[in-house]
Amino acid sequence: MPSTIPLQDATVYGPIRSRRFGHSLGINVLPVSHKVCSSNCVYCQYGWTLPGGASTERLKRAPALLAEIAVAFARHAAAGTPVDCITLAGNGEPTLHPDLLELVVGIKRLRDRCFPSASVGILSDATQVAHPAVRQALAQCDARYLKFDAADEATWRRINQPLVAVEFQAMVAWLKTLPDIVLQSLFMQGSYDNTGEPHLRAWVAAVGEIRPRSVQVYTIDRGTAAPGILEVPRETLQAIADRLTASTGIPAEVFD
Ligand code: SF4
Q1: How many Å apart are CA 124 and CA 37, to the nearest integer?
Q2: What is the pLDDT of residues 110-162, one digit of tens each?
Q3: Is residue 97 a part of any domain in this protein?
Q4: How many Å lie between the centroid of ligand 1 and the Cα of residue 113?
Q5: Could you give the CA distance from residue 219 to residue 187 in angstroms, rounded to a whole number?
Q6: Predicted model pTM
Q7: Is the pLDDT of residue 168 over 90?
């Protein structure tokens, strides 16, 4: 397994080609010198979430970020870069940005100008969904991808290691209220394992209660923060996806 990857070094990065998103132009609204996240997932491709430490880099506010995004979008449009979607993700948890709604609205306006057929999506660890401003911003996105790797408080704390004062069941209750969401569930084995039978049974039940539009099932494909984490064979991922759909009727797709 390769090592973890460096942080994104710009506000607009990519496009990244993936089976899940096609050509995805990434938007990083967070610093470039350190990760800012409400989770500390053991499998994070960027390594552990560490304190900002000596970094003096300040969070850029929406006007500065949108000015940079406008320049980058115009450059990609002029170059004919293929863009299927624009995804807020980057160096941590985008919903922590205080100007998220302004950013989403501004990015959609720039999208209309430069890549009218592209959707605007957001990847989130779901820890902030209780905040009205975050729910408002999520509602403005064309697509919402919420992390859901664990089915109980203990597994969530072990795998995703939330760094904010949120309780698992409260987060699940808020997820149930969000319309038209896609859950992303990463499965792993080795030093951390969420593929055991009792956990899978609980995960199917929890996803069935949340009733997302669909679920993306996947595994690690890069280095991880914690050592000893192993990827899950594709057949096992497919069996998990099939079991979810058979039991709940919710579409589930395996990506690698
Ligand atoms: S939520 Fe994403 S960025 Fe944050 S620690 Fe987990 S995998 Fe890394």
Answers
A1: 10
A2: 999 999 999 999 999 999 999 999 999 999 999 999 999 999 999 999 999 99
A3: yes
A4: 31
A5: 5
A6: 0.96
A7: yes
With a 6 Å cutoff on the Cβ, whether 128 touches ligand 1 is: no
Residue of 176, 159, 174, 161 lying closest to 212 (CA atoms): 176
- Mean pLDDT computed over every residue of the chain: 96
Which residue puts its alpha carbon closest to atom 2 of ligand 1? 92
Q: Is residue 219 part of a domain?
A: no
In a domain, 147, yes or no: yes
Structure tokens at 42: 């053991």
- Domains in the chain, number: 1
Quick one: pLDDT at residue 217? 98
In percent, the amount of the chain with pLDDT more than 90 equals 93
**Which residue range(s) make up the domain with 60?**
12-184
- Helix then strand then coil, % of the chain, to nearest 5: 35, 20, 45
CATH code (residue 156): 3.20.20.70
Token representation of residue 241: 């996806």
pLDDT confidence bin for 54, thresholds 50/70/90: low
Ligand 1 pocket, mutate which of 4, 8, 30, 39 (most atoms under 8 A from CB): 39
Q: Which residue's CA is minimally distant from atom 3 of ligand 1? A: 92
